[in-house]
Write a structure and sequence with these properties.
The structure holds 2 protein chains of 2 kinds. By secondary structure, chain A is α+β, with helices and mostly antiparallel strands. Chain A has 15 helices and 16 strands. A 5-stranded mixed beta sheet of chain B has the order 2-1-3-5-4.
Chain lengths: 473, 160
């Protein structure tokens, strides 16, 4: 008899998802899926709104990385306006995006992942949470909280709100950086450096004890996509996209936001509301790829900052080509954070950073525009069409979690096949399957989209709970 | 980033788009204006209480948590002491209660406020909306009075 194991909800994720594992009659794993069970309608209900409202509207899609949505959306609007924003505005946005990356990665690494990493995959689930981490390694708990506050405080200083700041607008930002705020951020940097140094050292100490997880946590060859600068350094806010193959060869380079939809398609599967992005010339699923910290570090030749560059050299020694195991997302996330702190320092010493010219003004000059940025968990793409009055007629968002979707599903299957035999499993085994998903740090709230009509099953039950009728759309 | 030790921290929680759930932020706004001339009183209002607030709690001598309650009758005001407590299971990563936050402050920063109280107002409705139900609206003056009394008592105790 076949059997289905359901993990619902998957814990310590951003958003709501579940995992199902199908066993055959011999109790061996036949298939496994990661389901995103919530649906959002932002692409639909933004239709009819003025384009200049889009950044503030779209940022509400999620409280974890609203800044990346703000930036990708504002850039799409600027394509419609046909303007290039002032240098200072671009630098300030870059700093805001990096601050968000640091706080989001701190949440992922310290709050969500570290209970598995520090307490063990098989440890008592009742204590396998942030309190357990605090009891076991209080210095890391303090570092995690401090790094999260570091990022959040910068967002609050720049945008006047910790979540959903309205400061990023089409054309730039609403106000320049005040000297007092610059100095306050500069004063926060030494503590941030100390905390990320502590985290990197702690991670490297424990990583060797997870050799078996490294082997089977979504450890397979894929393509990788991410933003990069002309000097092949990591980029979060501007630059263009590069796609590499599993051996590290460049498949396509210089993909700007306007060309994104020509090379990236989106497939749908019946078991989830999240779409599956793929590189069109290779088709689906062969053209699937991974994004996010692992992809960024696999693609970049340099981070562009001295301390992170040292870490990148060490990271690249994990494999002879691209680092394939998704377990290494954790490591890459910490390198990202170090880079973010260094880059913020570089930005603050830009001689033009206090310049007052931070916004370009224009109306509708094109009827279509696209923008892209790196969110903490990977590439984010916004694409809009407007009418002559600037009202949105169509919108599409391609989200990092959708771009990692195929790899997440394959990773769940890989781990389930490794750990589950004869229909036997323990809580610790199921936690390992969940932990595969945690390595990607998916954020599910913005990743879900209806394709065509929303699939719906309406079941009519009588008072005894028996099915009377069912309508499937 | 650590600020000088504040005497009283008012820490409110709630969603202003969920009717009576917004009573915490409303009372925080009131407190912010009412105590604006007193820098020893700090007010923080959040949609959710998250672990990073442990830093702020560790810097305070007294904490007054404010939240709505779906367990109390609508408009019912309760003020009770809170003790630090580590949850045995079912810890939510994105939201902690007052006892968990106090435990975080104690365990991470070896610092606990000398007094911590939780003021709750029973919610009549937490449906989508920006208006309060009649019981909660009627309870607001009493809640404000109670906040003022609690803060005044806390400040007086530190002067002794």
């Amino acid at each position: 008899m076949t059997q289905t194991i359901t993990i619902d909800p998957v814990t310590r994720l951003e958003g709501h998802g579940k995992i199902t594992i199908q066993l055959n009659g011999q109790g061996e794993v036949e298939d496994a899926h990661f389901h995103v069970t919530q649906v959002r309608g932002f692409e639909r209900f933004s239709q009819g709104r003025p384009f200049y409202e889009m950044p503030a509207l779209m940022a509400r899609i999620c409280g974890i990385c609203p800044v990346s949505h703000l930036i990708a959306s504002a850039k799409a609007c600027e394509a419609i306006m046909s303007v290039k924003i002032p240098h200072t505005a671009a630098q300030l946005r870059r700093m805001l995006n990096l601050a968000q990356m640091v706080q989001s990665h701190a949440l992922s690494f310290f709050y969500l992942a570290s209970p598995d990493l520090l307490l063990g995959m098989e440890s008592d689930p009742a204590a396998r949470h942030i309190f357990g981490v605090v009891a076991s390694k209080p210095e890391l708990g303090r570092a995690g909280i401090a790094l999260r506050r570091f990022g959040q405080h910068i967002i609050e200083l720049l945008g006047n709100k910790r979540i959903h700041p309205g400061w990023v607008v089409p054309g730039g930002v609403t106000e320049p950086l005040a000297p007092a705020k610059r100095d306050e951020i500069l004063a926060m940097l030494p503590e941030a450096y100390a905390n990320i140094g502590l985290a990197l050292a702690a991670y490297k100490q424990i990583a060797d004890s997870f050799k078996s997880e490294i082997e089977i946590f979504a450890n397979f060859p894929t393509n990788y996509l991410g933003l990069i600068n002309e000097d092949e350094s990591v980029e979060f806010t501007d630059g263009t996209l590069r796609l590499i193959d599993p051996k590290g060869n460049i498949i396509e380079d210089g993909i700007d936001a306007n060309r994104f939809s020509q090379v990236v398609g989106e497939a749908v599967e019946p078991y989830t509301y999240t779409k599956f992005a793929y590189y069109k010339p290779l088709g689906y699923p062969e053209g699937s790829y991974r994004v996010g910290p692992l992809a960024r570090l696999n693609i970049a030749k340099t981070m562009g900052t001295p301390r992170a560059d040292q870490e990148l050299v060490e990271f690249k020694q994990l494999a002879s080509g691209p680092v394939q195991s998704s377990f290494h997302y954790h490591h890459a996330r910490l390198v990202d954070m170090l880079y973010g702190i260094e880059k913020i320092e570089q930005i603050l010493t830009d001689p033009l950073i206090l310049d007052k010219h931070v916004r370009a003004i224009a109306g509708v000059n094109r009827l279509e525009g696209a923008g892209q940025a790196e969110a903490p968990r990977g590439t984010l793409h916004h694409h809009y069409k407007v009418d002559e009055n600037g009202l949105i007629t169509w919108a599409n968002l391609v989200i990092a979690t959708g771009q990692n979707n195929n790899a997440m599903n394959k990773g769940v299957l890989q781990a389930a096949k490794e750990y589950i035999h004869d229909g036997q499993f323990t809580e610790g085994i199921l936690n390992r399957v969940e932990a595969v998903i945690r390595t990607f740090d998916p954020c599910l709230s913005c990743s879900t989209h209806a394709f065509g009509q929303m699939p719906l099953v309406l079941t009519l039950l009588n008072p005894d709970g028996e099915q009377v009728d069912q309508l499937v759309r | 980033m650590r600020s000088p030790r504040v005497c009283v921290l008012i820490l409110a929680c709630g969603n202003t788009l969920r009717s009576d759930d917004g009573v915490g932020p409303w009372l925080a706004d009131w407190a912010e204006q009412h105590f604006a001339a007193q820098p020893e009183i700090r007010v923080i209002s959040r949609q959710q209480w998250t672990p990073d607030l442990a830093v702020d709690i560790s810097e305070a001598r007294s904490v007054l948590f404010i939240d709505c309650s779906i367990e109390s009758d609508p408009g019912t005001i309760q003020l009770r002491p809170v003790e630090p407590a580590v949850p045995q299971q079912g810890l939510a990563t994105h939201h902690q209660g007052a006892p968990e936050l106090l435990a975080f402050a104690r365990d991470l920063y070896a610092s606990s406020p000398s007094s911590a109280q939780l003021l709750t107002i029973g919610a009549g409705s937490t449906e989508l909306g920006e208006d309060f139900s009649e019981p909660v609206r009627s309870a607001l003056p009493q809640a404000c009075n109670l906040i003022e009394q609690t803060v005044t008592l806390a400040l007086a105790s530190f002067e002794r």
